[in-house]
Design brief:
single chain; 74% helix; mainly alpha; 3 helices; 0% strand
């Protein structure tokens, strides 16, 4: 069982270290980027704001880290 325990520990550490990327696209973006996206939200229908906000932040996140 030592192998599975070690594997579980490594997976857990990795999830804690990088899991926010999977659930929150803005987790590692500068606060200024997130604030700028929030300024655009009045131009989006209220019922779609959260979805659009997450999509925009996801696209920005994807392109920032693709260029590195």
């Amino acid at each position: 069982m030592g192998l599975f325990t070690d594997l579980n520990k490594k997976l857990t550490e990795n999830l804690y270290a990088h899991g926010s990327y999977l659930s929150d696209p803005s987790a590692d973006l500068p606060r200024r980027v997130e604030e700028t996206v929030d300024l655009l939200m009045p131009f989006v229908k209220p019922e779609a704001r959260e979805t659009v906000r997450l999509q925009i932040l996801g696209i920005i996140h994807e392109h920032i880290f693709d260029e590195e």
